[in-house]
Amino acid sequence: MIAKMFRVNKKNTIGYFFLKLGALALLVFLLDFIIGSVLRHYYFKQESGLLYRTTYAIEKTTDEFLVFGSSRANHHYHPEIFENQLHQSYYNVGRDGLGILYHYAVLKAVLKRYTPKTIVLDFIAGELDKDAQSYERLSCLLPYYKNHPEIRPIVHLKSPYEKFKLCSSVYPYSSQIFTIAAGNAEFNKKRRADLKGYVPLWGLWNSPAVVRNRAEEHKLDPNKVKIFESFIKECRQNEVKLYIVCSPYYDKSRQNDPSLKKAAEIAKNYSVAFFDYSVDTSFTNKNLFFSDAEHLNNDGARFFSGRLVKDILLADKKPERAHAHIKS
Amino acid sequence: MLFNSIEFVIFFVVVTTLYFSLPYNRRWLLLLISSCYFYMAFIPIYILILGFTIVVDYFAGIYIENAKGKRRKLLLITSLVANIGVLAVFKYWNFIVDNLSYLLKGFALDNPLPHLSILLPIGLSFHTFQAMSYTIEVYRGHQKAERNFGIYSLYVMFYPQLVAGPIERPQNLLHQFRERFDFDYDRVVSGLRLMLWGFVKKIVIADRLALYVDAVYNNPDQHGGLTLILATVFFAFQIYCDFSGYSDIAIGAARVMGFKLMTNFNRPYFSKSISEFWKRWHISLSTWFRDYLYISLGGNKVSIPRWYFNLFFVFLVSGLWHGASWTFIIWGALNGFYLVFALWTQGLRNKLNKITGLARLPQVHQAMQIAVTFFLTCFAWIFFRANNVDEAFTIISKMATLSGSLWYESPSMMIYSFAAIFLLLAMESKQEYYKGSFTLMHNKNWLVRNLTYAFLIILILLVGVFDGGQFIYFQF
Hints:
heterodimer; B: mainly alpha
């Protein structure tokens, strides 16, 4: 009976069905390969824009001073000030909306190619909190999965099936057609230029201080805590000078943030400098420095960068300054 | 286990392969075991709740069949109370406690009832209603009581429709578990085709629109009227594609194995009236309420005021069925009001159509009717989606002023969203108005047909939202 079912020349048999399914699979494979190859070509052809900055960070940086972090890293560290005062070439590898999992993957890729002298990791409040989105956002690493085995363990954190999904050539570029098109059209270059990865923000934050209710329960994500420690360990092993920095916020609601507390504790254990400006009164409620409640504008970034350089130089001379919760 | 997950794809392939490899008389057992596994993939312990209602209704069915007179009715009531009791505890308890507390506060009294910290079992309202339809049908004499406990359990637990319907009737589903379904190529392909379209609806359309809707509806204070209007329109399409996508996958998965489940959606946004909308939207629930509540209340064979009351009441209960919140109750009441108002003004509207000449322009009239129905439905969806009643009214007041500029995170967000809606409307307009003309998925040419399937699969990979999460109706 089973042999009968698997015959391929009769319509109502499983064999016939699989034959047709195989033909469809071939068609899907061909289309997937062609479209995927076109997208890959144009993805890596970009020379500006958001996606290009990740490619540059992973595959092209050669600078001595690197800034890691999310959008706050991207907008808060002015290259001119660091280059002039620390005499090191600068690049900002920060990317909007991404957290420690992404930063660690980029670090692994960078360290595979060369060893920068200094790294600043911009650490945000809630960085180590449990949050499914930070895993979903690892999608931005998928285009690099094929050629960068060092980032694969991080991509696998996204889901146990990621390896299988990546059999598709199109999947790594899912939902990125328009961003790739914009990158190739140099749309972002015209709209929002970056200066060595630093993207200045303009405008003033005119709204009153919004002290948010942060009483909700924060749960730390053990994966993220582990990765954060690995980030520190990698820097130490490669003799990279690491500074972990929580840059300023407009309001003071992050005062007791569990992620910040945990990060400070870990940094102390590894004797790594940790500067917390989250409630620094030089910045809180100063409209002139902010573009929105989370981000400094260009003036704020210049002022903050100057402050940070001073603190870095001071900490290098007096290591006890390296674990400061800066309040004024 | 979510339909839009790799786990489900593996599960479906394994179960279907085993299903066709087993002798006919053992297949129900495989389906029962796999349905238990499917349900336990959510929260395993909750299978005990399902087990409780299954045991109660199984014996109730047999006893009802054997009983006569008042005892028969008493047994039905016992079964219904057990089912509704489970719903009351797990779904409505905290809602009742909260409202009681609010009420007692007015009299300076404390509420003695405690809050329960329990999670709502997935799809509780769906399988409870399916179980209730069994005992009611046995009571009415339309269905023989099922003696095989395993097959009865499978009727309640059949995995394709276990957590979000369609809510089946015993007359349609029970006998199918004993039928012999051979492997039929056309039927299997038709089932898979429906599943593929369901996946497109969920992953490409619903979850894409959800990105915008969630961003706006979770912070309505920070958005202007235009943004809120767009988010509401997007939500109308999101919820349709989310739920009908689930139904398509469920019906398709069952069809592959040979089972025929009832149609649950029939292009509802082409409805020309609210009454028609409810004949096309969540058909299995609408007909459930019609058969077991509306008709029991007397239906339309009563005085006109009572008829209006019956309609309104049924929709009020339907709102409550969706969730233990005032937002759902208002949503149900609004729909009830629309229906009653439409009946009440029928004559007047007919006269107006004649006076304005609309009656002589049927296509313009139809387009206007569709637009008005869509507008009314969208207005009701505000309450369905808003996090609470206060927010719903804030949203409405902001919409009325059309304040603020249109928010969007990136231009691509809007392009994907509008393209997704366009794809849906193109497919559905074709099905609605151009039946029998050129088809893609049903084309006679093998290449055209398979290129369409391949295109849809690539579309999922290319623009699908893979981390979209669970279906909206699971919470009910």
